[in-house]
Design goal:
Layout: E1 3-6, H1 13-23, E2 28-30, H2 42-45, E3 55-58, E4 61-64, H3 66-78, H4 87-117, H5 125-133
This protein binds glutathione.
């Protein structure tokens, strides 16, 4: 199969798996798990020196960073459909993509960690609420 997606679904690899589904792509899902240390194994570091997932290998073209991957996949496989063709529309797609990554992601992850991921005795409901209701505008 030409496209490989590395990373488990309970990671940011979910974004890329979702994009691949939206585009109707055939892909191989390589379940590299951040929780087992696999992301720090030499074979994975050769793909992404940051030791993170997701990573894709699209017929020999290796790319990491979830949003860069999604914009690449959308443009390559969804131009004129999921991916806009007019310059201004493309810029809006970048705008909202960067906004999500730089303005929203941290708060969402903080709320997630304190609601579901941290052990119950390490969760802070007030921190979760504050993160959830933090406006993007500061
Ligand atoms: N900015 C990166 C973040 C990637 C990232 O932090 N991935 C986590 C899983 S959600 C990871 O691979 N952690 C494993 C590790 O740090 O060893 C992206 O969006 O792709």
């Amino acid at each position: 199969m030409a496209l490989k997606i590395y990373g488990v679904a309970r990671s940011r690899a979910f974004r890329v798996l979702w994009m691949a589904k939206e585009l109707g792509l055939d892909y191989e899902h390589v379940k590299v798990d951040f929780a087992t240390g696999e992301t720090r194994a030499p074979a994975h570091l050769a793909l992404n020196p940051n030791g993170h997932v997701p990573v894709i290998d699209d017929d020999g073209f290796v790319l990491w960073e979830s949003m860069a991957i999604n914009l690449y996949l959308a443009k390559k496989y969804g131009a004129g459909g999921l991916y806009p063709t007019r310059l201004g529309d493309e810029a809006r797609a970048w705008q909202w993509s960067f906004w999500g990554m730089t303005e929203v992601e941290r708060s969402v992850l903080t709320a997630l960690m304190h609601r579901a991921v941290h052990p119950a005795d390490k969760r802070d409901a007030a921190a979760a609420d504050a993160a959830q209701h933090k406006p993007a505008r500061r």
